[in-house]
What does this fold into?
Amino acid sequence: MSYEFYYWPGIQGRGEFVRLALEQAGAGYVDVARGSEEDGQGVAAMRAVLADDAFTTPPFAPPFLKAGDRIVAHVAAILLFLGDRHDIAPKNAAHRLWAHQLQLSVTDFVQEIHDAHHPIANALYYEEQKSESAQRTEHLLSARAPKYLGYFEAAIARNPTNSEFVIGDAPSYPDLSFFQLVAGLRYAFPKAMARIEPDYPKIAALHDTIAALPRIAAYLGSDRRIPFNEHGVFRHYPELDA
It folds into this structure.
């Protein structure tokens, strides 16, 4: 089936974790908010869904996915849903739960990365909280990022199959999310990542493996992949990259 995917146009943001999964799954989808309003798409179409009182299970905010009459919101929930339908999740029930746990940890890490440049409030511009951002980012790079990357590194190392992936011997959606974490951190903090990344060789190698998967490589080389920029989760402010 073809899905309708809803997220803000012009940024990767949290939606990129879903886009990567859809691409690797080979699933047909429409990135609705990036479409033309003349075709009934665009941001207006996304806002219309958010405002529609007819839905008994309405999404709180993007990203969300529409599959027929069903709407699924939140990255981890969307990936759990897609994993059950496509070949991007383990078949074993215990392993599927493990994949979901890993994705929830990714969600936590993404929030901490976001809060590095918006530590006080989302409604304030970065320029209005620069001193607080510098302090928050120093803690992110010295303590929190190593904690999360170390956890994901250990998870890959403990895979009983001894493969390069985190679960079993095939890529699953947590691997795709690990790829996006590394790519985003390299963009946002190139100096810091050059310093700390050698401590996590397995997740760095996994990034390269995922980037070389045929469907992901095709996506990365297409205009469907929005470039990193200073409006999403991963932002490069040189003064924060220590």
Observations:
- Strands lie at 2-6, 28-31, 64-67, 70-73.
- The chain has two domains: 2-85, 93-213.
